[in-house]
Amino acid sequence: MSLLSSSAVNFAIIIWLSIKTESAEVLAYATIGALLPQALLGPFAGVFIDRWDRKKTMMIADGFVALCTLIMSLLFHFGHFELWFIYILLALRSVGSAFHMPSMQASVPLLAPESELLRIAGINQIIQSVSSIGGPALGALAIGLFDIGYVLLLDIAGALIAIISLLFVHIPRPEQQATHATGIKQVLREIGSGVRAVTTLKGLSYLFTFSILSTFCIMPVAVLFPLLTLKHFEGTAFHMSVIEVMWGAGMLAGGGILGIFKLRMNKVILINWMYLLLGGSLALSGLLPSEGFIIFVVLTTLGGISAAVYNAAFTTIIQEKIDPAMLGRVFSMFFSISLLPSIIGLLGTGFLADTVGIARTFVILGSAIGIIGIIAFFMPEMINIGKKQTIKEVEEETPVIPMP
Which residues make Cβ contacts (< 8 Å) with residue 383, sequence separation at least 6? Predict the structure, then answer.
């Protein structure tokens, strides 16, 4: 319910901004506002996520996001609309997300056996994809019936449901807990231990690097999806919602495959194939003529499948390879490192859309993602971390990271 309401509100805001401004730059700045605080705070948030009770962290983060949404709703309701209000409040919501998402992902290995992590990641993708399907439909309906200020209240209701649900869940604490010293040097040492957990494991740093490069290419394209639908395919808000729903349907299919079937193939090989599928679907979308909307829908569905499988496989590898006591730091660090270059890419979104063209931007960046996938097949150290290993091989390969 929480994801569904957030998806509906996020899509309603996108529709509202797209119709009101028709500006790639406004959409890019709104996305930057929603990502930049998370990127900057991530490494520091991860340290405290590993120290604090993860259940309480998620509840407080959800409550803070709901409060920010309530303020935004009141501003709209009383007619105090300014774009910079939206940017600031999106940024404040991002602060809550900096603590919530890593806490959630770091909690999963504490609740489930390692052998089932990939299937659970697939089930999580199903949950997210259901919200991706229902959210845009609900958001498009809501924005057509109600003022944007009232639509935002859906997200507050979803956050309250999430907080109440967590009251009934017990999340155990990791066996190893970091010190509770609060000095900046100690915090930096704990961040450093998270970095070492990634860089000292063969191939994991390569996996992070390729993922960051692909995210750099994906983020500008993700921002331009609504404008490609509106301008290139001459669509309406209905067509925008169709694209969002079909992306969610693809994610549902991808998550369903992982959740139902216990795939035994190398997870890194799986990730590399998803780079090729996603890059190809984006590049071909940019090559379509304006009357090719139906084919665009099919390609978007394939992109959703690749995104779901990629996210599940990548998350599972991290959960399998990293000590649960350090997962908060590692997930937060990855989000930050991947988002910062992506924000740089977003700053050029308006320039690309105005000079190169939206369709050509899809071709260029989609092709770049495909090239990343091809190169990744020739990285044996990275391929090796996706293999199923015996207990002896894991003990020989996994370094001992001293806790600070």
Answer: 203, 266, 268, 269, 377
